[in-house]
Amino acid sequence: PYYVDMDQNLFLQASLHSSDQNLTVFVDTCVASPNSSDFRTLVYELSKSGCASDDTYSLFPSPRSDIARFGFNAFSFVNRFPSVFLRCELLVCRYHDFPSRCYQGCVSRFRRNADS
Questions:
Q1: In the CATH scheme, what architecture does the domain 8-97 have?
Q2: What are phi and psi of 41, to 5 degrees?
Q3: Which of 5, 44, 47, 97 has the fewest CB atoms inside 10 Å of its own CB, making it the most exposed?
Q4: In this protein, which residues make up the domain named ZP (predicted)?
Q5: What does each C-alpha distance from 62 to 24, 56, 65, 88 come to in angstroms?
Q6: Tell me: the pLDDT tens digits for 71-103?
């Protein structure tokens, strides 16, 4: 466990460990839960499809393509839960494969009107 104060800035880093130097990593979706084995019942969405869902969530520049950096302010699930657990989905793509999902950034999907 990592203990922090409420509203403290948390900075995280995900590293890809591979002998293939032509890969890049992208943080797609991150959710938090008070239960380490249940990320469906009570969750808080930090990011989805590369888009920030929480006002304090940010992606940060990285020195290398195989490292993704992001952060947010610490929070709790209404004082009755002592812990917050994270589950993040990361994507691995070919470096400089610009049409790949890793290079699209925030992707918000909108529904079309039935007559369009």
A1: Sandwich (2.60)
A2: -70, -60
A3: 5
A4: 1-109
A5: 11, 18, 7, 17
A6: 999 998 887 888 999 999 999 999 999 999 999
Q: Is the dihedral of CA 99, 102, 105, 107 positive or negative?
A: positive
Parse the chain into domains and list their residue ranges: 8-97
Distance from first CA to last CA of the chain, Å, rounded?
50
Listed in sequence order, the residues at least 6 apart from 67 whose beta carbon sits closer than 8 Å to its beta carbon are 13, 14, 15, 16, 25
Q: Hey, what amino acid is at 24?
A: T
- DSSP code at position 111: P
| Residue whose entry in the numeric block shows the structure tokens 């032509």 | 22
User: Are β-strands 85-94 and 23-33 bridged in parallel, bridged antiparallel, or unpaired?
Assistant: antiparallel
- What predicted TM-score, i.e. pTM, was given to this entire model? 0.84
- Contact predicate 8/63, CB 8 Å: no
Res. 110 pLDDT band, cuts 50 70 90: low
User: Using CB atoms within 10 A of its CB, is residue 78 exposed (0-12), middle (13-18) or buried (19+)?
Assistant: exposed
Tokens representing residue 35 in the block: 């239960």
Q: What pLDDT sits at residue 3?
A: 86
